[in-house]
Write the structure tokens for this entry.
Amino acid sequence: MKIKVSSIILFLPVFFVLGCDSGQDSPVSKKAETTQNAPVVTEEAPAPMAESTGNDEAIAKAESEPVQQAAISGKQVYQKACFTCHKTGVANAPKLGDAAAWAPRIAKGKEALYSSSLNGVPGTAMVAKGGCGTCSEEELKAAVDYMVSSAE
Ligand code: HEC
């Protein structure tokens, strides 16, 4: 008996809500219904997906915007676009500050290195612009200057 009573009490609000939804057709209650239900639906299903793509876009924007506004230092470009490989030497990338690794490259001349940073080194992980599609030529040069000066 106790269980029945409590379950009726539990379900009463549900019936009340359902009754309101189906029973009243006034625009006011319809409005309340949609505004109440909509956030729940979007939060439960598509939100996580939208969140991840949204975040990616936000990150891409956050990364690209300061670059497009130019005038960021070679160090900043390096930290943004080059350090993933050039810090630890991924795929034999010459490491920042590794004079032995940079010496033969520096010997080729700055122009050759600028060209490599812009066009990549074919057949290696050093792709055009180091993969930084939003980096300008000036920024790539600045990053090269930064890495070269760290190894001199
Ligand atoms: C995905 C990894 C990766 C990223 C990111 C990357 N590099 Fe490299 N980079 C390499 C590798 C690997 C080499 C060595 C290529 C070779 O074997 O000559 C290299 C070589 C270079 C060289 C020497 C090229 C030469 O002609 O000797 C320069 C300059 C250079 N990278 C600049 C940059 C700059 C500037 C960035 C950032 C904008 C960058 N790299 C980002 C992997 C990377």
